[in-house]
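Holo prediction — pyridoxal-5'-phosphate.
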Amino acid sequence: MSRVYNFSAGPSCLPEEVLNECAAEMLDYNGTGQSVMEMSHRSKAFEPIIEDAEAMVRKLMKVPENYKVLFLQGGGSTQFAMVAENLGIHTGKAAYIETGVWAKKAAKEAEHLGVKVDIIASSKDKGYSYIPKVEKIQGDYDYAYICFNNTIMGTHYEYIPDTGDIPLVADISSCVLSEELDVSKFGLLFAGAQKNLAPAGVTLVIIREDLIPEVENCRPGTPTMLAYKTHSENGSMYNTPPCYTIYVLDKVLHWIEKNGGAAGINKKNVEKANYLYDYLDSSDFFRATTEKGSRSLMNVPFLTKYSTGSEDEAAKAKEKEINDKFVKEAAAAGLVNLKGHRLVGGMRASIYNAMTLDGVKALVEFMKKFASEN
Ligand SMILES: *Cc1c(COP(=O)(O)O)cnc(C)c1O
């Protein structure tokens, strides 16, 4: 068996140790004679798993007592609706910072559900290659919304906007537990698991208790399943939770703890990202697409010198040929899923928590060789 270095933006690589433990327990979890996949979520064997997962999230993220930790389904995308349905209920107005695809989708969903959305800042002017500086957010907003790490654009907030009394909501799908984060600065945090936490299927939500309305006080027409109250009252077991995914999540959380928690993991992430950005900034063949001061530690889009922005057909064909060649030759060398998102073009290396420094070094070695040959 040979494992590849997987640079996928999500679902993405998981720690090998965790996969091995899952494999060892596949047929018989903890002497139960069953796989966790086969168990009732209300069983004596499963309940400690979900309880431990919650305790580990609380411990690793230092979640204050007055916040609920929920394990939901529907991915990050369902949170775009739940945030609006549950929080957009007083003035019906919300402030959004537009930093790329995921922030735009969230704003569009809120609008679709009747919330009045103000785009108070945007980095559209430069193709979302940076994070706008919005030190203070004021107004009669029910909430303010940011996408903290922009998976597609490769940008990340290096500050937390001051919103005063306005609850700040952040999508942390692609940076959760990649760094230390002061939960108390936010009203609500959410993360689809498949980037940094687990396989696809569970979404972590951390919400300040006083922001959870009664089901009937959500926006009109909100389905029971889309009310946070439904899940917070029932320990995320109103209906069947994604049991197996939560089990893997719990193992990943223990792996993070063993690696020094959020602070320890962050140190490694900084080292990995610097290694790649330093090469990109020094190369005359490759370049990063994002501005310094806004760069993601997790998602690193990059272009080659053949990406000139020219509309000339021959130049565009050459650009495509080089990008395709890079992705194909990298895959043959065991470096997979490096194709860039179509909106940015070029390549993208996602280097989440589970990607090793060795993986990043292998990528840079490959890039040096590719640059010298092309
Ligand atoms: C992947 C991603 C999403 C969407 O997640 P799904 O689980 O596919 O709905 C939302 N926001 C960010 C920042 C993401 O990276």
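READOUT: Residues 49 and 247 are 6 Å apart (CA to CA).
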